[in-house]
Each structure stands twice: as C-alpha cells, then as structure tokens.
Design a protein that fits this description.
The protein is of the alpha+beta class. The protein contains six helices and eleven strands. 29% of the residues lie in helices and 26% in strands. Belongs to the P-Pant transferase superfamily. Gsp/Sfp/HetI/AcpT family.
C-alpha cells in the first residue's frame, strides 16, 4: 500500500475550531515559534494532512495520531507500527505519503532560479555533468527534481542530511510507468546508486496539480523480485479539499 495526498495549506486558518480534531496540542505550541503566518500555516497544515490521510486509508487509530521521531526527526506512528508516514511542505502546499514500508517524500517549489553555489553543493560530479549538458531552459526544473529525489531518499533512510551527499547519487533513466502520478515523468525515472547499506530503494517523480512544483517519493523495496511497475502503476496523487 502506497498512497499520496496533497492539500493547499496557505489561505487556511488551521487554528480555527474546525481543524482542532486534526492537530495535537504539541503541534499547536510548536507553531507559535514559527516566523510568519505562511510558515505557521504550512507547519500546522502538514499535521492536518497527516491525519486526514490516515482517515482516508482507514488506519483505524485515534485522531489526531500520536507519533514519535527518531534521532534525526523522522516520524513513526505510536499505534500502528505497520504503517509508515512521511510529509513535506513547500510554497503553498503540503504533501503526505502513507505506506506499508519505509517511505520518504519531498515537495519543492520549482519557480526560483537556484544559485550556482547551491547547484554545486547539492549535485555530485556525475549529476552535475548531466545537469550541465541539457538545454539551459530545462536546468532549473531538473535541479529541483534532483533536490526532491535526494530529500525523499534521505527521509526514507531516516537520517536526513546527517548522511553525507557524497554517499549516493541520482541517475535518471527512461521508465515505463503508466499511472497519472508518474506518466508525465515516464522518461525521467530516478535511480539511487548508494554505498550506505545493502537495501534496495525505489524512487519516482510525482506529478502534482500545480506544475510550478515537483515532488518525489522513495520507498524501501521489501521484495526484490517485485517489478517496480507493480508498485507504482496505480499510484495517484490524491488532492484533499476541505
């Protein structure tokens, strides 16, 4: 089971009484520390979407869900150790993945030209070579695709940026997925080449409604005999309107 949900967060007031059932008291307190209303609403919206997503998959746990984080900040549900969750926010939107295996997801607003110093910091030599040899008009989008894939991989590992970026790299290859979530990116499938552990990870770029954004999902492959298409062929990014 792999499902992905998204919601526009900016413009909503998640401290209104109608959202209260989807927020923990701890999240509300932490939101007070956020600078600016936009950042506060995105922070609250991420937990709201988590709980709406758990309802959508019929997780059968009390809402708002209780969760703990590992030493690097990755969340794990208290009441369902067989359900894995991860979320992200960027720009105006939040996104959440719910799966039956370790999962990482990342969302990036792709509308800002990246600084050259950031490009060279994020990309490894082979990635930078690929980046510099595509048409200049395509580079900005590709940079944020690299970023989203890398963050989703670091999230599925559960380490975040505690794992050095030179321990892995992303290679884009042609794919044949047919689901609406990935069909726009069928010619650009990310593969992780890593020397961190002996596990296999599968990643995909996701098509979201607002084309100014890019998102990536990465999961741990529990069955190496299972074809990638079987995991992703029915994947849809489901939009929640509340």
């Amino acid at each position: 089971m792999i499902r992905v949900f998204t919601m526009k967060a900016v413009g909503k007031d998640f401290l209104a009484a109608s959202w209260s059932p989807y927020l923990t008291e701890e999240r509300k307190k932490l939101a007070d520390r956020k600078k600016g209303e936009r950042e506060r609403q995105l922070f609250l919206g991420a937990e709201v979407l988590l709980n709406l997503s758990l309802q959508q998959v019929d997780a059968r746990i009390p809402i708002p869900a209780k969760y703990k984080r590992n030493e690097h900040g990755k969340p794990y549900l208290d009441d369902r150790q067989d359900i894995y969750v991860n979320w992200s926010h960027s720009g105006d939107y939040v996104i959440c993945a719910v799966a039956d295996r370790e999962v990482g997801i990342d969302l990036q607003y792709a509308g800002k030209e990246p600084k050259k110093s950031l490009v060279r910091k994020l990309l490894q030599p082979d990635e930078l070579h690929f980046y510099e040899n595509i048409p200049e008009s395509e580079r900005q989008r590709l940079f944020y695709e690299y970023w989203a894939v890398k963050e989703s991989f670091l999230k599925v590992l559960g380490t975040g940026f505690a794992t050095p970026l030179d321990r892995f790299y992303v290679e884009f290859r042609k794919g044949s997925d047919v689901s609406d979530a990935v069909k726009k990116n069928a010619m650009k499938v990310p593969y992780i080449i890593q020397n961190i552990n002996h596990k296999q990870y599968l990643c995909r770029l996701l098509s979201v409604k607002d084309e100014g954004y890019t998102a990536a999902l990465c999961i741990e492959s529990l069955d190496k005999s299972l074809q990638e298409g079987e995991l992703f062929s029915t994947l849809e990014v489901e939009e929640i309107e509340e």
